[in-house]
Amino acid sequence: MNTTTAVRDRILRLCHERNITTNNLATISGLPPSSIKNILYGKSLNPKIITIKMICDGLNITLAEFFNTPEFDNLEQELK
Length: 80
Prior knowledge:
Elements lengths: L2 H16 L3 H8 L3 H8 L8 H11 L3 H5 L2 H4 L7
C-alpha cells in the first residue's frame, strides 16, 4: 500500500465510523468538498499536511491518531 491509498482509506474509515458523508466531513473541516474528493479520487496525490490537520480538527482527533494505524506503520518506501 502506498501513502496516497493509506490516507484515502483512513479518511473513508473515519467517515464510516462516524456515519458521516464526505460532504459532511468537508463542512465540519472547513474545506471545500472538492478538496476531500480530490484526495479520495486520486487527483491530489500529495495532500498538504495542513489539509489533513483540518480534517483531523473537524473529526476532533489529533494528527497522531490519524496516522496511528497499521497501514501507516507498514507503508511501502516511496522512493524507488
